[in-house]
Amino acid sequence: MLTGMRLLAEETALREGPTPDALEHPLLVTPLFAIAADAFLLSLPNGLRFHYRKKAGVVCSRSAGISDAEVELFHQGSVYGAVAWLNGLVPLHASAVTHEGRLHAFTGPSGAGKSTLCAALAQRGLPVFADDVLVLDLSDPARPVGLPGHKRLKLWDDALEMTDLDRGQAVRDGLAKYFVAPPLSDLSAPLPLASLTFLDPPSGREASLTDCHGAQRLNRMLSAFYRPRYIEALQPAVERFALAMRLVHQLPTRIFDRPRDRDRFDGNVDVMAAAIRAAGG
Amino acid sequence: MATDQAPAGSGAGINWLVSYPKSGNTWMRMLLANYFGETEQAQDINRAGILHGIAASREHFDRALGISSSDLSAAEVAGLRPHVHAHLAAQADRPIWIKVHDAQQAIGDDWLFPPRSSHAVVYLIRHPLDVAVSYAFHTGQSVAGTVDTMCRSDTVIAERSPHQLPQRLGSWSDHVASWVDQAGCPVCVIRYEDMLADPAGQLARAIACGRPGLRIDPLRIAHAVEQSRFDRLQAAEDAHGFRERSEKSPRFFRRGLANAWHEHLNADLERRMRAVHHAMMSRFGYE
Does residue B229 lie within any of the structural domains? Predict the structure, then answer.
């Protein structure tokens, strides 16, 4: 199972150099990114640009004043996800912790609280495995396996307040979002994914963790794919649906609805930590 | 090769359901959802059909542009939002409905809500003194602070929201003018007070604006009005919660009345609102 891990490490290897203005034979061109069957181009408004080509790694070019932290931010996000898709891996928009050799992942749109929840679970002894992007290797037909993510979480200042973690370097000048070393992490080896939890916007009710059933599972899984437009350009709908179907059949899926009031944050995390421990290894 | 300029759908465009906050937008969305819903059951207030969320949704932005809006500066986000709207419009094979609280505004050489992406605007307006009281309850801010918010031209909301992008409203009058005086696409102005008096008639007007040529079914109108009654929305919120409720407010659907501002707005605040918004209030019949 090291194959997927090594492949991802080699293909996402980053160096600086010249980058093209456009891709040859793109499948999709948008204002910020273009994707082809074997290449990806990300062009940010600040002049930072990444170009990936299969078997050639990632090249970035930047205008003066762009920090290494900014390069890391986008390299470990959109670029990382695109490279995974282009190499037959499946990135989810998810963060994950480990318990007894298995992964428990949380997905939801930006702002759903994935990173904050993982940071707080790490404080309760559940090590962080991936933040924001969880890449799956599906080469074992029996079970999805997650590949370890990056060393640092990205947390907003209000998440730092709730978790009482120390602020690291700002991800970009002017943004109140910071790189943070998780209190506990486990990035040593790929691990099987044991559950996927959808973080819903709060309905206003008490914290609840319910099984996800029926057709909504499929729609939710499709929306859990990292940067859906990347995969929509690369694969026909029937293949994407088949992929989502496979995952919902192989994974227990749950919905976590919890109040977002700060004074109930610890109680919400306790609910999730107890559920993970009850699931066992 | 696909681009956002080459529609995946027919590029039918977007019906912007626009209002200053607390002016009847949610009620109109539920009326539309219950009208266009294909069942006899009431639409779920948290998952109403036919509606595509709010234009300022971070989820729309991130999905359309393949990047996290939270990794970009406010200026970068603002400059890219017209592309998000172009993408959403390109995907539509018939006009879709999207909620808006932003003021219409220029973004470089473009508009935040570009006419090329727009099918029509339904603008919901409410007596600003009632808005001030309702908005204060919604945000947990004082009525005086809310009046200040409504009188300032630099008002921006959701600057720190995990789910929504920052939205520039301007003052209440700025907001109204930015939409009703734009010439990029057809505008239908609906007064909240007229919705209270004749919800069926105002719903029919909104449908006629957003879906011209569609035969309006009086039975579906009656169904939508019945299922969207204020007391039913309140009961649904009590039973299931409402995802748009502010953390600062015990409930979203509070009273929904017209001319209830007298109980909460003192004479000084009333004078300030009238001084700043006199012209726009007169234009829309608000005394």
Answer: yes
Q: Choosing among A67, A199, A229, which should be mutated to test the B contact, i.e. which has the most B CBs within 10 A?
A: A229
By C-alpha distance, which of A131, A147, A146, A162 is closest to A195? A146
Q: What are the tens digits of pLDDT across the range A207-232?
A: 889 999 888 899 999 999 999 999 99
Residue B186 CB contacts under 8 Å (≥ 6 apart), including other chains: B120, B121, B209
In eight-state DSSP terms, residue B72 is S
Using an 8 Å Cβ cutoff, are B178 and B68 in contact? no
CATH code where residue B205 lies: 3.40.50.300
B163 touches A: beta carbon within 8 Å:
yes
* B12-39 pLDDT per residue, tens: 789 999 999 999 898 999 899 889 876 7
Chain A residues near residue B67 by CB distance under 8 angstroms:
32-33, 42, 44, 74, 77-78
B51: containing domain: 14-127+154-246
- In the chain, the amino acid numbered A191 is L
ipTM of the complex: 0.92
Q: Which two structure tokens, joined as six digits, stand for B108?
A: 């470089």
List the domain boundaries for chain A. Answer: 2-88, 91-279
Which pTM was predicted? Answer: 0.90
Of A28, A73, A109, the CB nearest to B2: A28
Within 8 A by CB and 6+ apart from B25, the residues are B17, B18, B19, B99, B101, B124
Which of B3, B4, B67, B238 would you mutate first to test chain A, the one with the most A CBs within 10 A?
A: B67
Q: Measured between CB atoms, does A65 come within 8 Å of chain B? A: no
Topology, domain A91-279: Rossmann fold (3.40.50)
Taking CA atoms, what residue in A is nearest to B164?
A111
Euclidean distance between CA atoms A116 and A114, whole angstroms: 6
Inter-chain touch B243–A31, beta carbons under 8 Å: no
In a domain, B287, yes or no: no
